[in-house]
């Protein structure tokens, strides 16, 4: 394979040619410094006028930001360089000379940058965030493959809602109604009855009119479902998974974390087991801090942040009131007013990253829930049948990829953790 900036350390002392773009440049009378990127990383190219001649030196000085190039040079070790290497340039071949690149080193407003998202992802910090996203995705596949899970892909077009909500995107499926999926969970429960331990990884959609830094209209979810697994074992798998992701980012994205200025000491604390409190205890802790919240009310972002700040690790909030959780969650046998579920709250104000529960496995109880939630028997008959033919205890959860990327990378807003975000008022580019 041709050398890249990522692998350039394998060619120290050698002359190489790389395809790249000019991210930035500066020059003095005798030396020009080219900040080069090739999609795998960034490196500085040093152009010495006395070595390359007047014509090439002036050509380099006249190049516009984001011009595409073939740059030939000798790889030199340099401890001061972020990559540990720099390139002593011998020749530059211009592929395309770019002029008036919209995103300059000066400050730009968020709306301007979002309008130019197709170009913004080239910048060093955006590049680093999306590289960390890739590390998390690959770590996810490794984690579940190593533990015997089978990846199953649920449909994106569905005839029903996973949680009985109205926050769905409606479309027509020939002569009947259909919706964009807000979760693959129900289908993954069916898959778990066939393969025992499964997971899905795909896009989900919520027509939720929210503008917070934690919300996207289109986002990606990792959703495992596990037969013969109870609530407690599910929590252990969740904390093992999140710890695995944190270690992967620490080990495989050192350069990206440095670019982002991420406090890695915070990431080093993410090791199982995690803190656990019940919903009841969470309410008591909040009331002790003078928050006006009562048992039975949902938690908002300030509540989650307050609770997270009380612990060094992510914290599970377990045993929520049945009335504010989804219809499929199994009641606690010791207190049927609450269900066997948990939300995992990330530290540093990043909020909920996982929601999960043990699922109802009793046919009669699920049928009762259908009636309570006025669920269509025609649309959900197949889901009820899972309790009719070989039902077993089973549990599952969903991890939001973008929130997790935001947390582990230290990025404030989830819009920067997905290549092309879909927001309440944004469908472009």
In short:
It contains 14 helices and 18 strands.
Question: Can you offer a commentary on this structure?
Answer:
32% of the residues lie in helices and 27% in strands. The protein has 14 helices and 18 strands. The protein has helices at residues 49-52, 54-61, 110-115, 117-120, 124-146, 185-195, 231-252, 254-260, 264-268, 279-288, 301-308, 363-372, 377-385, 401-409, and strands at residues 15-27, 31-37, 42-48, 68-77, 85-96, 150-151, 157-158, 170-173, 176-180, 197-205, 218-227, 275-278, 315-318, 331-332, 335-339, 341-346, 351-358, 394-400. The strands form 4 sheets. It has an 8-stranded mixed sheet with strand order 6-10-11-18-17-16-13-12.
Counted up, domains total 2
Identify the CATH homologous superfamily of the largest domain: Bira Bifunctional Protein, Domain 2
Radius of gyration: 26 Å
* Biggest β-sheet: strands ordered side by side in the sheet: 6-10-11-18-17-16-13-12
**Architecture of the largest domain in CATH?**
2-Layer Sandwich
State the separation between the terminal residues, measured CA to CA.
33 Å
* Shape, principal axes of CA atoms: elongated
Determine the CATH topology of the largest domain.
BirA Bifunctional Protein, domain 2
> What is the beta-strand fraction?
25-35%
SS class: alpha+beta
Largest sheet, in brief, is: 8 strands, mixed
């Amino acid at each position: 394979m041709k050398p890249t900036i990522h692998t350039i350390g394998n060619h120290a002392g050698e002359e190489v040619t790389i395809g790249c773009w000019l991210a930035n440049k500066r020059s003095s009378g005798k030396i020009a410094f080219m900040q080069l990127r090739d999609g795998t990383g960034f490196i500085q190219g040093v152009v010495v006028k006395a070595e390359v001649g007047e014509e090439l030196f002036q050509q380099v000085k006249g190049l516009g930001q984001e011009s595409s190039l073939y740059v030939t040079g000798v790889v030199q070790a340099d401890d001061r360089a972020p990559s540990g290497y720099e390139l002593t340039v011998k020749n530059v071949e211009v592929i395309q000379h770019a002029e008036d690149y919209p995103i300059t080193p000066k400050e730009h407003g968020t709306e301007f940058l979002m309008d130019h998202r197709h170009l913004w992802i080239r910048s060093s910090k955006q590049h680093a965030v999306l590289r960390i996203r890739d590390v998390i995705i690959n770590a996810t596949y490794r984690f579940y493959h190593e533990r015997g899970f089978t990846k199953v892909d649920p449909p994106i077009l569905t005839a029903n809602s996973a949680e009985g909500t109205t926050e769905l995107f409606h479309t027509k499926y020939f002569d009947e109604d259909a919706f964009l999926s807000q979760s693959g969970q129900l289908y993954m429960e069916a898959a778990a009855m066939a393969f025992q331990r499964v997971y899905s990884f795909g896009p989900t959609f919520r027509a939720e009119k929210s503008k917070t830094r934690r919300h996207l209209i289109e986002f990606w979810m990792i959703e495992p479902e596990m037969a013969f697994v109870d609530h407690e074992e599910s929590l252990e798998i969740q904390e093992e998974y999140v710890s695995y992701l944190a270690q992967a980012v620490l080990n495989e994205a050192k350069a990206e974390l440095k670019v982002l200025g991420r406090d890695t000491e915070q990431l080093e604390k993410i090791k199982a087991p995690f803190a656990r409190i019940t919903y009841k205890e969470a309410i008591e802790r909040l009331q002790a801090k003078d928050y006006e919240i009562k048992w039975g009310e949902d938690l908002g972002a300030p509540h989650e942040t307050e609770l997270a700040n009380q612990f060094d690790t992510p914290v599970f909030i377990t045993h929520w009131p049945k009335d504010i959780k989804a219809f499929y969650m199994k009641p606690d046998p010791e207190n049927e007013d609450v269900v066997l579920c948990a939300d995992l709250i990330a530290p540093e104000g990043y909020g909920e990253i996982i929601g999960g529960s043990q699922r109802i496995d009793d046919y009669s109880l699920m049928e009762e829930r259908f009636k309570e939630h006025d669920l269509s028997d025609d649309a959900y008959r197949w889901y009820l049948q899972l309790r009719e033919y070989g039902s077993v205890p089973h549990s599952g959860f969903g991890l939001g990829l973008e929130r997790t990327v935001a947390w582990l990378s230290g990025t404030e807003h989830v819009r920067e953790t997905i290549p092309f975000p879909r927001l309440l008022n944004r469908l472009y580019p």
